[in-house]
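User: Let's play a game. I give you a shape written as tokens, and you guess the letters that built it. Ready? Here's round one.
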């Protein structure tokens, strides 16, 4: 008589039930060639998508800087109504500032993101946008450009001080 666990028919049935069938040699993993092809395709897709992602980031940064500049224009108009006049001074390659009619600087603004450039369109390097006591402009139209990389947006200020983006 055989003892339990020493072999016999019961042990053979147990071995057969627990055995995992061996995979053929050709199905045991990925070949080096398959890995190289997958990595090449991934690299190509990343190379195609990366310029769009960088351009999208520039687009958002330029738009944010434009909105800050527009906010500065509106602040100059509000300060003009409050203090009887104000001037927004903008320099190409620099920043902008709001100055009250008495000469006190209320707010300075410079692009905080590296690579963002501010430009006064035309042949001028500087623009002074004056606003009277009613908050209306007292100057000719001015076009301001905000640029980073290939992205560029314009802010057009009418002679009345209205802003068009």
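Assistant: Ready! My guess for every position:
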């Amino acid at each position: 008589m055989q003892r339990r666990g020493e072999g016999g028919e019961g042990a053979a049935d147990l071995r057969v039930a627990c055995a995992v069938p061996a995979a053929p040699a050709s199905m045991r993993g990925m070949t080096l060639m398959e890995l190289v092809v997958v990595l090449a395709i991934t690299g190509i897709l990343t190379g195609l998508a990366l310029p769009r992602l960088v351009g999208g980031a520039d687009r958002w940064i330029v738009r944010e800087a434009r909105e800050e500049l527009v906010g500065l224009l509106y602040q100059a108009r509000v300060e003009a109504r409050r203090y009887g006049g104000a001037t927004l001074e903008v320099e190409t390659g620099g920043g902008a500032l709001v100055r009250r009619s008495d000469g006190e600087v209320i707010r300075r603004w410079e692009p905080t993101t590296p690579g963002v450039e501010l430009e006064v369109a035309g042949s001028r390097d500087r623009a002074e946008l004056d606003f009277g006591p009613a908050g209306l402009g007292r100057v000719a139209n001015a076009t301001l450009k905000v640029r980073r990389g290939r992205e560029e947006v314009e802010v057009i200020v009418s002679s009345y001080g209205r802003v068009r983006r």
